[in-house]
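Table S2 (continued). Query chain:
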Amino acid sequence: MLIEKIVIGDRVRKDMGDLVGLAESMKRHGLLHPVVVKKDSVLVAGHRRIEAARNLGWKDIPATVIDVTDLLSAERDENFERKNFTPSEAVAIGRLIEEQEKPLAEERHRTLSRRGPDGLGGLDSGPPKRMRKTRSVPRWSPRHNRESPRHERNARTAHGSLRSLHRG
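Corresponding output:
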């Protein structure tokens, strides 16, 4: 259905929340649940899905057409009559996804170790300049807390100060 044809009347939900995650899911998997409209194209359920689809630049969205007379009860049921994962279920699904992704991550690591994203060197081609510089920082000790000026709050000034303290 053309998104522009869907009539989003006065809705109870005003806060759309974070649509970025929903849009990313829709981009990755497609729309898992079509929006729901009445025969006259008035939205029953799926306002967030429509907004995420708009953010993705979609012009059409899958829609289920139903015959409902009590729009408010349908909106309430859409938002209350569902069940989120329990904490243990959320952990279980996270572990399963991690197991599924682990071989892919290992392959990416092997590929990057052989050849970096720029095609020149991989992870074994040596640390970047900043990392080499950080390695040269002497070990921190309580003495440095007393001797280092308090205004040094970033890595560059702290690095210089530590090197001079270490030499002196």
